[in-house]
Amino acid sequence: MQPMAASALLVSGSPRPEGNTATLLGRCRKRLEQHGLSCELVSLHDKDLRGCDACGACYESKDGTCPSISDDFAPIFEKMVNADVIVVGSPVHFGSATPMLMALLDRAGYVARANDNLLSRKIGGPVAVARRAGHNFTYAQLLFWYTISDMVVAGSSYWNVGVARGPGEVQGDEEAMKTMDRFADNLAWLAEKLSA
User: How many CA atoms lie within 13 A of 114 on its CB side?
Assistant: First the structure.
């Protein structure tokens, strides 16, 4: 395959650095790399991320940062801004995405919007993993972030969800694996079309 100039950032919002969310994102990463994209997987498990306090400082500073909160947001947001493709994944915790992932996404949305929509027309899509239920709500919750951020979302042969609880169990979800492959194929296809 012809190498592409596009880059992808995959963000795991799981507190488990090698859990099922990371496994699905790893599958997506591998497939994207086969298409020639340079990829980085960032796990939030060891990051200090505080929620947005709606202070409006990002609108005043206009420098692409969140100047009022000192934590690990800035370097991750910089990676988001520099990536062509952004994929975020979360396990389902009490029916929704993890607080650490939502802290990142809420602040990224505000800072991007305050600075001429820095995430506009980037490509991506969400991934959700659950033991039994909550996939659809969490997938939709994350999908709303993409659409309000003026991003382009790739589809797949099914929603990007996996069924698993114990470590590595998602690898037994054959449909989830095939869905991730098709999702990655579509991301790469979109990246090529939009760069033409």
Answer: 20
